[in-house]
Design goal:
- By secondary structure, the protein is α+β, with helices and mostly antiparallel strands.
- The protein folds into two domains: 50 residues; 199 residues, OB fold (Dihydrolipoamide Acetyltransferase, E2P) (Beta Barrel).
- The chain contains five helices and 13 strands.
- Helix 1 packs antiparallel against helix 5.
- The longest helix has 25 residues.
Length: 272
């Protein structure tokens, strides 16, 4: 009777292992598949970026141009691929800033405060947006709203992943720290969604931008800008996906079979 119970427990364990193995094979992890989404929920990709926060003087000196303008249009987001579609990569192979969704913002320029350009419009590029079933967000890039009045510190896009894609465009210097929303009562505000991070007067910013030593600082900034960018890039932490795998831990079929066969002589030996 005892032998029957032992064999029953053994067979139950072996069948359980084989069942787990079959389920694992039929439901592979997202980490081992291409970047595809077959569910009804959007896949969220969050990017955490640590960066050096500039003072008003540093914002001025490290910007290629500074403008006051109005958000005219927010263009549809795109992946930074040739066709603008999702890259054919594994989810765990996505890397920032090589693989991103970006959104272009058309700014109608009211006034150039540094290095005027011939155009009365320019494009500002931010990381983030939703393309199909995939959504990307960062905790550093600013958000924009149509018809919003802004003062922007802007730098040329030097990222190899986006600089040659689309028309000429700029990045906001020092991420959200380089974008101020202007109010009718003369305030300039930095916000993070609904949280106000800084409030100054527009006059204060203009005084800093128009300081008499601005020209000297521009020359010095051009020499130091590459170093500052490297420091900022060096502190970027990369891509963190919010996707959690529901895969059952994999048990290879052959190991399960070997365990079953190896247990047979042990049981027989104990019977003798």
């Amino acid at each position: 009777m005892r032998n029957v119970i032992k064999y029953g427990i053994f067979l139950f364990g072996a069948l359980s292992l084989l069942t787990l193995n079959a389920l694992a094979l039929s439901n592979p992890s997202n980490d081992n598949t291409e970047l595809e989404n077959n569910s009804n929920e959007a896949i969220g990709i969050d990017i955490c970026i640590d960066f050096i926060q500039y003072t008003h003087e540093e914002l001025r000196d490290n910007s290629d141009t500074i403008v006051i303008g109005t958000v005219k249009e927010i263009l549809p987001p795109r992946w930074n691929t040739i066709d603008g579609k999702k890259p054919k990569k594994l989810l765990n192979k996505l890397e920032y800033p090589d693989d991103i969704i970006y959104t272009d913002i058309v700014i109608s320029v009211d006034e150039y405060l540094k290095n005027p350009l011939p155009s009365n419009e320019l494009i500002v590029r931010v990381t983030g947006g939703t393309v199909g079933d995939f959504s990307m967000t960062t905790d550093a890039d600013p958000s924009f709203n149509t018809d919003e009045k802004v003062l922007l510190y802007l730098s040329k896009d030097e990222r190899s992943s986006t600089r040659d894609i689309g028309p000429e465009h700029f990045l906001v210097t020092d991420f959200y720290r380089g974008k101020y929303t202007l109010t009718e009562d003369g305030k300039a505000i930095i916000t993070d969604e609904t949280v106000t991070l800084e409030t100054v007067t527009l006059e204060e910013l203009l005084n800093t931008i128009n300081q008499t030593n601005n020209n000297t600082n521009d020359t010095e900034a051009s020499d130091n800008k590459e170093t500052a960018n490297k420091e900022t890039a060096g502190k970027q932490e990369g891509v963190g996906s919010t996707i959690q795998s529901k895969r059952i831990p994999f048990m290879n079929f052959f190991w399960a079979l070997a365990a079953m066969i190896g247990a047979v002589p042990i049981v027989r030996h104990r019977q003798q």
